């Protein structure tokens, strides 16, 4: 948080300056009261008129200065939360795809919304209020010294007590704040799940189940919030009691000093006034400190997100793909699972076309994800032009590869923007991409390239979305195109046509994960990679049919199904 404070040094200095002036002016009010009482005792009417004029000007000035102070505080809070939110967002953007996927995306949403709000309410606001409180306290203390050093000494002793007692709540408040942050993240995850699965929930009559689940999470979050609020209420009550106790003790000491003849009645009233001004900042301080301390765990969580450093794939070499990608004796398993790949060997030459085939769950997508550098903990070697993946800059590697998944994400924008991804693409290339991908076939007078596709492409069919994804990959001009069942939602003939056109692009290396077993199409691939029991067998379609019994069996079975 220090970074954000130093980014707003000037505004903070101005806030402290105006806050100090306001505090001093507020504390000065006690002297005015004392003066007025003494004027009343002396019955001096002209001094009284002068005091009335002075007081009026003083009140207007107080109002103006307080406005400046409050506006500066709001500005600082807005800037700090904006910068914090931006840093967290940047930290999320920096994550590699594998790390990003390891956390539920609603967790990120919760950090960017709930946690930032928590920092605003429980860190920034109390910190600024506390600063003003401290200045007010100091100013009032000076006035108190002016009235009576003995009363001042009593006050200091009590203050020490006041700062220690609310501090006892710090630890429990921090634990509860941390718990609340987690519960809010869980609630956000549940809400996101509900929104994403709305259609399934409705059509499969899951409303009761979701209602119960939401209700229970809502209840847990509310309880957790109440847990924080209860501690905050306890801190507030303790601070109210303690500050009232301070007021009474100070008042008793002042009365004692009057009895002893050490101070006048005017000073007594002044002391009472300034003591009242001391109670307020004491309350603010004793409530602010535990609140600020309580946000430690949330700040830690936000720091972890914003200062994300990739520790798994930290290579810096520029990836190239002039020759080939080699997968050498690669074994891989997901956490606490058996090996998915077990000594897999295969290679991909530049410009050649490959079809990856195998039973559902045999590890086809896993292999593709490994090539993309999503996972670091594999055994064996994955080499791009002879350089191991761990030595390469993964961000740059990802820029070389276009992946088209079965489920295509669509931005709520025009077809053009979904293809060009908001970049300027030359007309020629765009025209070619529309043709190869088959997008041009579903454009007409009603649906042009500039028609909006709705939320996640709601106004398009699954096949149309996939065709847009193919066009998107083509205009980006990447050397490697991976289709992870990327044409599965398109009718057989259209998919055949699109894939044939893709296979005809000479310079493009194509890897297609496919469950479609059209012999003509499979023959058009340079090599088939048949995956089975964690291993890969490579060959042309005809070679595999000739030499690999398992492949023949698998092919015949699927061909019949198809
Ligand atoms: N993130 C993950 N964590 C744990 N297990 C996973 C994860 N992703 C995939 N798996 C498991 O790894 C195995 C291989 O999955 P993968 O998606 O690579 O198979 P696939 O051959 O592409 O399947 P399909 O043809 O059905 O798409 C499956 O058993 C799957 O359940």
UniProtKB/TrEMBL annotation:
Keywords: ATP-binding, Membrane, Nucleotide-binding, Transmembrane, Transmembrane helix. Signal peptide: none annotated. The chain crosses the membrane at residues 12-33, 45-72, 127-147, 153-173, 233-259. It is a multi-pass membrane protein. It comes from the Bacteria. One of its GO terms (molecular function) is ATP binding. This is ABC transporter ATP-binding protein/permease. It comes from Faecalicatena faecalis.
